[in-house]
Predict the structure.
Amino acid sequence: MIVHLIDGTYELFRHFYGIRRFKKTDPPYGAVAGVLRSVAKMLDDGATHVGVATDHVIESFRNGLWPHYKTGAGIEAVLRSQFVPLEDALAAMGVVVWPMIELEADDALASAAHLAAQDDRVEKVCIWTPDKDLAQCVVGERVVQVDGRRNLIRDANAVRAKFGVAPEFIPDYLALVGDSADGFPGIAGYGPKTAAQLINRYGRLEDFPLEILKEDNLEKALLFKTLATLRIDEPLFDDVEQLRWRGPTASFQSVTEKIEDASLAARVLALKKRL
């Protein structure tokens, strides 16, 4: 089997701003409908085991470690108002959804990928997000990162080609070069090429000689590495079969009426009949 893990928050943002490019008004649940249609297409294309992670709130335990870490400030009200409806709609569709509070959606994706990869029945784990944080979860050709918008699949070799380091060193790499999306700047003077060269020579930040990364910089870099390191210990499921899609719940019809996409109900019911 192939396990598909989706970054629901990224998809919600993507569909929200995609609608903006083509319409003058924001449908109240337009982005929710867009995400559901994307998941339906995935099921139509043959996906059987699917899990969606969402940021129920944007803030996480990392905000307590670094005051400038990303927050929900600045998110438009019409977009934020679709966070919970997306989670409810996915559940009604019969899709496993993990709304994260103390942790982030990225942590859920990392934990789910780790759990699924332990199961010998799983041929491949596909993590659907372009977020560079998730590159640390890639394992050979078994756990891969998929950028659906650009139609790219990134295995371990592709991660190394893009960043210059193996997947397991992505937290060290991001600690040095920074991650503007997450709100930490990295260490001054360490660009992508320099960071990759040093990591390939010395390995983990903890193994860098002090003359390379001075003590004050090392302390800050290790903090940034903590911010960049995704959790893989969240017990999201006991058996990968819990991710198998078995069809929508009885409430899905009313959900499609609420989001004003009546055709979606018929499409999903047709997929159910194929099971």
About this structure: The chain is about 45% helix and 10% strand.
